[in-house]
Model the fold of this input.
Amino acid sequence: ISTGSSYTVICNEGYSVKGFKTISCTEQNGEATLSAIPTCRKDDKDSCQFPELIPRGFMTYASPTMVGKYEFAMYQCYPPFVMTPNMDFMRRYMKDSEASASKAYKDLYNIAYCNDDSSGNHLPS
Done:
């Protein structure tokens, strides 16, 4: 991969891209830097599938693996919209960590999650 180029990742049959589908290479201060590298994961009806686009926003990061019993993704809004955290996730976080509403908001405002109980994705809005 050369500086300034980008490539789209395509997985073999039975596998899906986890994370962004595009790898790009940029140069900063004379050093080449690769974007986040996606992985191919075996299709599983119970696995998390985060959408690249949400209403008025887009994904900026997807965790390549489970973190504990959760998978995460981060989203950003198009200007002038503002992201609101998933309220169920925020309430659970506040209860489990005893965090204030202000801290929970700062930590979770752009986070989507999916857990291994097959309840599906929980997206910010």
Observations:
- The longest helix spans residues 87-97.
- The longest strand covers residues 70-77.
- Residues 93 and 104 are 7 Å apart (CA to CA).
- The chain has a mean pLDDT of 80.
